[in-house]
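Module 6 notes. Inverse folding takes a fixed backbone as the condition and produces residue identities as the prediction. Think of it as a translation problem where the source language is geometry and the target language is the twenty amino acids. Below is one complete input and output pair. Work through it position by position during the lab.
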């Protein structure tokens, strides 16, 4: 295919590359879907998550007390882990695992298995979440008991179970975040939201690398938007983890 003659697919298979920067009108989504389609041919679970209708304003009430621009990192970690969980659900070999069952029950009780990101944000910004305590932290006999709290109260447990299940699985899991630019507006809050997303992705990918380097989260973002973010920590991420899409006129007829 003309859009992969420089071998972007093979670069994305390397654990270090997960940030794809592209210039406007360069059709970067083709690469995301090409990567996704080829991954699914083997022992992988992959999904491209579109954020074209993402409500940036939903995050405003979900920031924590961290200093700017990192105040949205916890909620982004929660969302990204839920995206990974949705792919883990497809792995039938894990269905009998007790942690798989508990996490599935948590999702069913609080959201739904569709896990639309806008709906998830709406739910966690307006009500408390419930997590069954029996068999987790305390034993209550046979009576079912639930803990009630904010998403922050269960973020570590969600991370622990998702990473544990990925480690146990014989498969690999990939999430590609796409179309973040459609509703992006150049203001400070939206800037902080995207900076937090990139840092949250880095944090989870480091965790996955230490567990199973073949699973990761990929972020597609326009170069001009990335430049607008202007955060010193992002420069090292760009140096270490980015792929810069540059379309050329040459066509590699041997690309698959």
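Target side of the pair, the amino acids:
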């Amino acid at each position: 295919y003309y859009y992969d003659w420089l071998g972007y697919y093979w670069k994305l298979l390397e654990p270090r590359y997960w940030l794809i920067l592209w210039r406007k009108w360069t059709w970067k989504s083709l690469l995301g879907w090409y990567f996704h389609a080829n991954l699914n041919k083997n022992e992988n679970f992959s999904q491209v998550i579109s954020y074209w209708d993402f409500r940036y304003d939903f995050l405003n009430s979900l920031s924590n007390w961290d200093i700017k621009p990192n105040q949205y990192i916890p909620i982004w970690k929660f969302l990204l882990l839920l995206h990974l969980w949705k792919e883990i659900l497809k792995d039938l070999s894990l269905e009998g695992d007790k942690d798989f069952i508990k996490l599935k029950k948590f999702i069913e009780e609080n959201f739904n298995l569709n896990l639309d990101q806008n709906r998830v944000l709406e739910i966690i910004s307006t009500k408390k979440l419930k997590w069954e305590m029996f068999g987790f932290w305390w034993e209550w006999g046979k009576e079912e008991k639930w803990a009630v709290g904010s998403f922050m109260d269960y973020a570590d447990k969600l991370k622990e179970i998702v990473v544990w299940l990925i480690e146990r699985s014989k498969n690999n899991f990939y999430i590609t975040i796409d179309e973040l630019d459609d509703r992006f507006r150049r203001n400070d809050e939206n800037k902080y939201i995207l900076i937090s997303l990139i840092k949250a992705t880095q944090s989870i990918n480091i965790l996955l690398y230490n567990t199973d380097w073949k699973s990761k989260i990929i972020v597609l973002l326009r170069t001009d938007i990335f430049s607008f973010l202007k955060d010193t920590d992002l420069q090292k991420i760009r140096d270490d983890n980015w792929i810069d899409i540059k379309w050329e006129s040459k066509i590699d007829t041997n690309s698959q």
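Reference fact for the lab report: Confidence is low (pLDDT under 50) at residues 134-142, 249-256.
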